[in-house]
Write a structure and sequence with these properties.
This protein is α/β, with parallel strands linked by helices. It folds into 2 domains: 176 residues, FAD/NAD(P)-binding domain; 118 residues, FAD/NAD(P)-binding domain, CATH 3.50.50. 23% of the residues lie in helices and 28% in strands. The protein is built from 6 helices and 17 strands. α1 runs parallel beside α2 and α4 runs parallel beside α5. The longest helix is centred in the last third of the chain and has 21 residues. It starts with a strand and ends with a helix.
Length: 302
């Protein structure tokens, strides 16, 4: 019987483990793949307070080692469900079942990909899924943003203050995002709209050099860019818990800044919960908040 089980060893889950262990709780962290989550694919982190420059892998490794040194246990098995018995919870994995008093779901979310050849290989070499993370690397350069929702619009507006030219590519003839943001983009001379089109090919020489864009009539054109920012949505990793935990229409756990779900003793932390800002620093903050709440819940069962 553990005090707290944390599902996911990304920044939120690892931070939660640190805070829970510092509160002298027994902690088990379950991870399907490897510690670190999506952040390990980020070549450079430059927006985390007090850490001006670090690779995602190095950052994740340091946080993992910190949690492990404090006594958190790690088991690399995929969690596929949670059983709620009121005072106790049982986390079911593909191989075992583990009991605890409180659960923190920190499974994160995955960027929706375009599905193009070499897309994964070019991450950090011209392809990015986070404008606020990587935009500064493209100061004075040409970039493109793909998408039609608020994230794509906000990314384009953010990049317009940094890049020489921003191409905003959308598969339809109108955006799904806020009209006020669209109006602001139309007022920027360096923002070029490319409607009724999709990115069909990435062209690179070690780094991205241009993209092929095909319109609805099947006509292809090549646009020279140094960076491509993909903003076509994210996929939260919550479906295994959908029968117990309330999710919104997009599949995110319905939980506010207190990280509390609809089930007492089960908390959500990081990119898999409903929130407006999904960044490394907010994932860490969620981990601290969720762990503090989980510790309090576990203590209430004494």
């Amino acid at each position: 019987m553990y005090d707290i089980i944390i599902i996911g060893a990304g920044p939120a889950g690892l931070t939660a483990a640190i805070y829970a262990r510092r509160a002298s709780k027994s902690v088990l962290v379950l991870e399907a793949l490897s510690y670190g989550g999506q952040i390990i694919n980020t070549p450079d982190i430059e927006n985390y307070p007090a850490v001006p420059h670090v690779s995602g892998f190095d950052f994740a490794t340091k946080v993992y080692q910190q949690a492990e040194a404090l006594g958190a246990e790690f088991v690399f098995e995929k969690a596929v469900g949670i059983k709620d018995s009121g005072s106790t919870k049982t986390v079911v994995t593909t191989e075992n079942e583990y009991e605890c008093k409180a659960v923190i779901i920190a499974t994160g979310s995955e960027n929706r990909k375009l599905g193009l050849d070499d897309e994964e290989k070019l991450v950090g070499r011209g392809v990015s899924y986070c404008a606020t993370c990587d935009g500064a690397f493209y100061r004075g350069k040409k970039v493109a943003v793909v998408g039609g929702g608020n994230t794509a619009l906000e990314d384009a507006l953010y990049l317009a203050d940094i890049a020489e030219t921003v191409y905003l590519i959308h598969r339809r003839d109108a955006f799904r995002g806020d009209e006020a943001t669209v109006t602001s983009l139309k007022q920027r001379d360096n923002v070029k709209f490319v409607f009724n089109s999709t990115v069909t090919k990435l062209i690179a020489d070690k780094r991205l050099t241009s993209i092929e864009v095909t319109n609805k009539n099947g006509e292809a054109d090549t646009i020279e860019v140094n960076g491509l920012f993909v903003a076509v949505g994210r996929i939260p990793e919550n479906q295994n818990f959908a029968e117990l935990i309330k999710l919104d229409e997009a599949g995110y756990v319905t939980a506010g800044e207190d990280c509390e779900t609809n089930v007492a003793g089960i908390f959500a932390a990081g990119d898999n919960r409903t929130k407006s800002v999904r960044q490394l620093v907010t994932a860490a903050a969620d981990g601290a908040v969720a762990a503090t709440a989980a510790v309090k819940f576990a203590d209430s069962l004494r």
